[in-house]
Amino acid sequence: MKSIRVHQTARTGEDPARARRFRDAALPHLDAVYTLARYLLRDPSDAEDAVQESYLRALRHFDTLRSDDIKPWLFAILHNVCRVQHGRRSGLLLHDVNAEPDQPDGVIPLWREAQDTPETVMLRKLDAETIQGLVAALPDVFREVIVLRELEDLSYREIAEIVDTPVGTVMSRLARARAMLREAWLTVQHEDEQAGEREGQLKIPCEQACTGTAA
Hints:
mainly alpha
C-alpha cells in the first residue's frame, strides 16, 4: 500500500512521548487497517482517507484505550469512520436487512470456537489472490466479518465488539459468508472445468487436420 501519513502532532502542544507511544503501538497495524478499509470501501483513495481519519481519532483518544491489544480498537474506529463518514458518499451499508436475525449470545460459549466446516477447510486451501476476489464480491455486511475472522484471525468476541453486534449474529454472518464463498468457489471451478473441456475439444479437430495435411 502507499504510505499514509499519520500526523503525529495533530493537536497543538501534543506530548511527543505520547505520540511516540501511539506510533509504536498503532503503526505496526497500518497495513491490516488499510486492507480492511479497501475491502469495505472498494476504493484506494477512500480507503486511505478513512485510515487517515481513523488514526487521527485513535491518536486523540489514545488515553482511553484500556487494552494491551490495540488492533481490534483500531478496527472498531475504522468501522465507525466507514459507516458514518464514507458510507454516505460511497453508498456503503454495514448492515443488511436480509442478514440473519440476532442470535442469543449463548448459542456457543464465547470461549469455544466452532469446529472446522467444509467451508473453513476450503478457505485455507485457496491462494491469496483467489480469496481476495471471492471476498470482494460478498455483500458488505458479510465481507467485513469474513475479513476480520479469516484474514485477521480475530475471535468472535473481538469481531462482535468491533461491529457492535451480538456474538450470535457474528457467527451467523460468518456461516453465511463462508457458504457464499464456497458456492462461489464451486462455480469458478465448474466454469474452469467447462473451459478446459472446450479447449480439449478444439484441440482434437486441429490435431486431426494437422495429421491429414502431413499425410
